Amino acid sequence: MSREISPPPAKRRKISAHPSPAQAQPLRPSTPPLRIEDPHTMRVFSWNINGIAPFLQKPITTFFQPSRSVKAPDSKAVIPPASLRGFLQRHGWPAVLFLQETKIASADTKTQDAVESAVNMRLPEETSSAARGPMYETHFTLPNDPHNARGLRGSGKVYGVCSIIRSDLFSTYKAHVRTVDWDREGRVSVVEFQSTNKKLALFNIYAVNGTNNPYRDPSTGAVRGTRHDRKLEFHRLLMEECLKLEDEGWDILLAGDMNVAPDTRDGYPRLRTFPQQHVLNRADFKSKFLGEKKQTSGRVFDGVDIWRVTHGNERRYTYYPRSREWGSSCDRVDYVIVGKRTWEDGLVTVCGILDSEAERGPSDHVPIWVDIHLRKEEKMQRPD
């Protein structure tokens, strides 16, 4: 069975000129985020890990060299990049970690339990109560579509997202995790936080990758077009979900692998434009989620690409295929989008991309992060 892959493919067809030196910028790893001092700021990480297996066993030497291990802040201990607990610890115990492409079968409760154990297993330096980090809950949205999410040899180990949430948030913000009834491929998890004056919905997204492979009716197996068609349908259904929540007074934040690079600044050495359907998919996504209303009729989710609006024309990327030399072919397909109202209210303060080989770990994507400031009255200064 043909399986879809994260874009772009290992080999790209040449369709445009190489960016000039003035356009291209040298790859420089982003500075790790500063520690959070404000208790009202919620830090959210998102990472397409391309399979959970390396995080549940000892580091594989083919993935890592000893020099690539990361020292924990203020510690002599070395944390292997494939340690989920180590990731949370060295990044200051964030509120939320969204994982995409976990590749766990829905019936595989043993692996799901192993993920929760890996997230909460104390590190060697957590020897005293003062050094101990918080506990986390893991919530999975895994595929149950027998016709479109079979995986290799029908294993069901394909797609899937996991939302890892710090346990204290369930009481502080009445956290609730759910999925949506129109997704059976394990692509959408919704984490809802509520306080006395705020309702915030965070979407963990692993968007459909468009291909010419058939898309089948999840119930009957009858062919209903291609994966390109399903991608466009996915855009529409996700947009409608966002609009419905906005009408109910929710602030919306989408984070994850969108499987679309928005424009020429987001592809190196060039933006993917072949086959032509990828151009149409990109235009559809931007019209429905990034405010380019001229591409469609009717109401759309008028969103803001946080990283792009706060970093101008800077070139940074999140997808680094392992089949290529680091930085020779890359795209920004993982990012954060918030509703226009949420942006104007000043709830999102800063975001970043951890673009280094060490942070990529065993994946082919690097993590991204965003801070959400939950005090509406303390607005941040916006760039012009």
Automatic annotation (TrEMBL):
Signal peptide start and end residues: none
GO biological process terms on file: base-excision repair
Example GO molecular function: double-stranded DNA 3'-5' DNA exonuclease activity
Listed InterPro entries: AP_endonuc_1, Endo/exonu/phosph_ase_sf, Endo/exonuclease/phosphatase
Cofactor(s) annotated in UniProt: Mg(2+); Mn(2+)
GO CC annotations, alphabetized: nucleus
Domain Endonuclease/exonuclease/phosphatase intervals: 46-365
Entry's cofactor comment: Probably binds two magnesium or manganese ions per subunit.
Site feature location: Interaction with DNA substrate: 365
Pfam families listed in its UniProt record: Exo_endo_phos
Active site: 206, 257 (proton donor/acceptor), 365 (proton acceptor)
Residues the entry annotates as binding Mg(2+): 48, 101, 257, 259, 364-365
Gene3D superfamilies: Endonuclease/exonuclease/phosphatase
Keywords of the record: Hydrolase, Magnesium, Manganese, Metal-binding
Region (Disordered): 1-35
Record-marked site positions (Transition state stabilizer): 259
Site (Important for catalytic activity): 334
Family that this chain belongs to: Belongs to the DNA repair enzymes AP/ExoA family.
Annotated PANTHER family: AP ENDONUCLEASE (PTHR22748), ENDONUCLEASE_EXONUCLEASE_PHOSPHATASE DOMAIN-CONTAINING PROTEIN (PTHR22748:SF14)
Name this polypeptide is given: DNase I-like protein
